[in-house]
Amino acid sequence: MRVTGGIFRGRTIRSTPGMAARPTTDKVRQSIFNILRNDIEETDFLDLFAGSGSMGIEALSRGANSAVFVESGYHQAECIKGNVHSLDLKPELIKSDYKVACRLLAEAGRTFDIIFADPPYEKYSLDEIAEIVLQYDLLRPEGFLIIEHIGGQVMKKDLVVLIKRQKYGQTEVSFYARKQPATKVGDLPGDL
Question: Which domain holds residue 99?
Answer without folding.
Answer: 26-166
